[in-house]
Amino acid sequence: RWGAALLFCIVASAAYMHHVNRAADKQQRWVAYAIYGHTAIELFDGRNSVLLVDNGLYADASKMDYISDNLLTQLRIRHRAVLPYSAEVEGPNLSVRHCHITFHSTHIQIVDPSIAVTLQTADPPKKRQRTDCLVISGNPHISLAGILRHYAPDMLVLSADNAAWRASCWQSEAKTLQLTCSDLRVAAATLML
Questions:
Q1: C-alpha angle with apex 80: 76 to 86, nearest 5 degrees?
Q2: DSSP-assigned beta bridge partners for residue 98
Q3: By percentage, how much of the chain surpasses pLDDT 70?
Q4: Mind spelling out the 3-state secondary structure of 42-67?
Q5: Mean pLDDT across the chain, nearest whole number?
Q6: What's the pTM?
């Protein structure tokens, strides 16, 4: 009788672990979160991931070593590439070009101070560029209205390195426009594909 119960527990545990492992093999999602006051965007494709971080965090070797050593096992990842936002990558499911990320069919635009200067001096396009997520990073000196003249996002993510008062202004503007907004100083933002 005890043997049957033990056998049932072993089989149920094995079935559950098989299910969890299969789900990890098929995952396609991205997560934006704060690491040491910086924003990181991690793109999961099966058991592989690409972690995109701002240049300040990427340049800090001790923090990058800690991230590489401690986050892989918790997320069931076999291989992780760590790159700065400024990287240029082209692959079958991933394209990263100067703060614009295409992951499968998802488009993520990062607006940092360099992009903000360009947006402020450029004429607005006839049609705004559609993007699934707009990440405001690096505390750029621009209003949300100034950004939205160029982009039409489905979701807004405020980086952990933005000033609290500026993030509050962007959140108020987003609320008025009924735009979903996540502040990474408070919680991570996740999108399943």
A1: 140
A2: none
A3: 78
A4: EEEECCEEEEEECHHHHCCHHHHHHH
A5: 81
A6: 0.77
Determine the pLDDT at residue 193: 44
Count the neighbouring beta carbons within 10 Å of the beta carbon of residue 151.
17
Distance (Å, rounded) from C-alpha 90 to C-alpha 98?
Answer: 12
Stretch (H or E) spanning 111: strand 106-111
Which strand (E) or helix (H) includes residue 83?
Answer: strand 79-84
Contacts of residue 106, Cβ cutoff 8 Å, sequence gap at least 6: 30, 132, 133, 191, 193
- Can you read off the two tokens belonging to residue 68? 């590489």
According to DSSP, the β-strands at 38-45 and 48-53 are antiparallel
* C-beta separation of 147 from 121 below 8 A: no
Mean pLDDT confidence for 4-8: 63
**What is the separation of C-alpha 149 from the centre of its chain, rounded to a whole number of angstroms?**
23
Which amino acid, one-letter code, is at 36? Y
